[in-house]
Specification:
Blueprint: E1 2-11, E2 19-29, E3 34-39, H1 45-53, E4 60-65, E5 68-69, H2 75-78, E6 82-85, H3 99-107, H4 121-132, H5 151-163, E7 169-173, H6 181-197, E8 202-205, H7 209-214, E9 218-223, E10 226-232, H8 233-238, H9 241-252, H10 259-263
Parallel strand pairs: 3-8, 3-9, 6-7, 7-8
Antiparallel strand pairs: 1-2, 1-4, 4-5, 9-10
Helix pairs in contact: 3-5, 5-6
Length: 265
């Protein structure tokens, strides 16, 4: 479903602030893969997601999504193919618009716009049923402004919006980092449910090793712009946090005592 081949990205090239964020990166995702991505600050995790989303062009290499070469495709033209949920609950929605209006925008993502009713009665009923699945009572607040929702409610809504058109790829960019632990657990549970029910291919960046191990069918660890660890299937199911840290130390040559040390390198 996703084929990243030999991509590299350098920021501020030729200046004193030059930083090579991605180095000959390769990653292949099969349809239905749910990959969790971990690594220290500056490892290249968000750069990789931004490259796939088309936020900025890569210097070299190629990106194929479901067989289509999207390497040179601008971000707005990838919108119909890729869904994304950001770390900040304030992003990904229009706060001054109603819930049903935000869902209508999501349903029309990537489509040509015309002069017609913003939300039809049939769509309104569909949105109500979709919101019910979140279990947050939002189906009774469809005309409320999104800006009035809590952070957790907003992330749940953004998840629904990102998956409404069943994208080829769902990108979750530390989407629970700004939430309290209980709310984060609820949003992760919803993420699992939405990905499974819609048979989506997904990548999730997280700063929590336990979450990385617990969720998805595959885990990759990045360091200095490339992937140093790729664990999947039964091996991932048996994996412990301590084993993961030991593997990182063995491959990178850096000894770590906790995930906090790893994730703030």
């Amino acid at each position: 479903m996703l084929k990243i081949s030999h991509i590299s990205k350098t920021f501020n090239k030729g200046t004193i602030n030059e930083k090579q964020a991605l180095r000959d990166l390769n990653l292949h995702l099969e349809p239905g893969d749910f990959v969790t991505v971990i690594g220290g600050n500056g490892a290249g995790k968000s750069t990789m997601l931004n490259a796939v989303a088309g936020v900025w062009p890569v210097d070299e290499g190629s990106i194929l999504l479901d067989g289509q070469d999207i390497t040179a495709l601008p971000e707005h033209k990838r919108a119909g193919l890729i869904g994304r949920v950001f770390q900040d609950p304030m992003m990904g929605t229009a706060p001054n618009m109603q819930l049903e209006e935000n869902l209508a925008l999501a349903l029309r993502r990537g489509d040509r716009r015309g002069l017609r009713w913003g939300v039809t009665n049939a769509e309104r009923e569909e949105y109500r049923e979709k919101l019910k699945t979140l279990g947050l009572g939002l189906e009774d607040r469809m005309t409320a402004k999104v800006g009035l929702l809590s952070g957790g409610q907003r992330q749940a809504l953004t998840l629904l919006m990102a998956s409404l058109k069943k994208p080829k790829l769902l990108l979750l960019d530390e989407h629970t980092a700004a939430l309290d632990p209980a709310t984060a657990a609820k949003v992760l549970e919803l993420s699992d449910s939405i990905i499974q029910e819609n048979s989506l291919t997904a990548m999730m960046i997280t700063h929590n090793m336990k979450d990385a191990i617990r969720h998805g069918n595959r885990i990759i660890m990045m360091n200095e712009g490339h992937i140093i660890l790729d664990i999947r299937g039964e091996e991932k199911q048996r994996l412990t946090k301590q084993e993961l840290m030991e593997k990182f130390a063995e491959i990178s040559g850096t000894q770590i005592e906790s995930d906090q040390v790893l994730l703030t390198r």
